[in-house]
Recover the amino acids of this structure.
């Protein structure tokens, strides 16, 4: 079956969560007594994911040690450990031999209840090699308020990816949760490249980047305020953890 593997970007420093992240990486930030990433992995397993590869850098040993001691039934966990300064594209290239032919890629600081079967159906219907999940952001509840960073056309294709959020006509927020065909990754690339700025942007320009549109709220732990907010969401929604 396709898309039984999740690949998690989890190598950055998490500057906005300092001093907490002086001692642990951001995905290990505590949420009601459990690391944030525990909630993420539980959600992925329940969505149908069977294998996970962490793309690590900063304080990688914290994640490795945690899952050495906390086995998750139904999930196989592996790691690709790079440099702290590696960007997202570089991390994928470093992990190339560990990647399935098709996989789900996501950020280690975003939580969104993945409807994997619907995403797979959308991916097949669009006939593309890469889709990203786009939050409609109708009420300005994205990380940057009403600031959007993608333009999606009526046919479900991303026409522009603008990290500056300034381009006219932007109508959604890219929240990650990418369905990826491994062939979009150039394993011979030697630079420290960004997956978003190089791969996503180029595919958008070519009309080859699909979108899975959602109104379902996503959550992020990029600051102490949003970390506290997610704690409240976990309590209110009784979000499960293994």
């Amino acid at each position: 079956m396709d898309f039984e593997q999740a690949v998690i970007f989890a190598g950055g420093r998490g500057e906005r969560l300092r001093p907490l992240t002086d001692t642990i990486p951001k995905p290990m930030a505590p949420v009601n007594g459990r690391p944030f990433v525990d909630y993420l992995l539980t959600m992925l397993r329940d969505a149908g994911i069977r294998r996970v590869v962490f793309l690590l850098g900063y304080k990688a040993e914290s994640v490795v040690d945690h899952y050495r001691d906390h086995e998750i039934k139904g999930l196989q966990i592996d790691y690709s450990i790079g440099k702290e300064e590696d960007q997202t594209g570089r991390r994928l290239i470093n992990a190339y031999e560990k990647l399935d032919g098709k996989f789900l890629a996501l950020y280690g600081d975003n939580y969104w209840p993945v409807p994997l079967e619907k995403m797979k159906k959308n991916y097949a219907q669009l006939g593309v090699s890469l889709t990203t999940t786009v939050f409609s952001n109708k009420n300005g509840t994205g990380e940057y308020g009403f600031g959007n960073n993608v333009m999606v056309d009526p046919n479900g294709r991303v026409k522009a990816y603008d990290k500056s959020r300034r381009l006219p006509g932007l109508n959604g927020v890219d929240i990650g949760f990418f369905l990826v065909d491994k062939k979009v990754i150039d394993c011979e690339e030697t630079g420290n490249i960004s997956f978003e700025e190089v791969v996503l942007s180029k595919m958008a320009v070519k009309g080859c980047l699909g979108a899975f549109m959602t109104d379902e709220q996503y959550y992020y732990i990029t600051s102490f305020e949003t970390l506290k907010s997610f704690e409240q969401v976990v309590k209110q929604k009784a979000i499960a953890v293994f």
Q: What stands out?
A: The chain has a mean pLDDT of 93. The chain is about 25% helix and 25% strand. Helices lie at 36-47, 60-69, 88-94, 116-126, 195-206, 224-237. The radius of gyration is 17 Å.
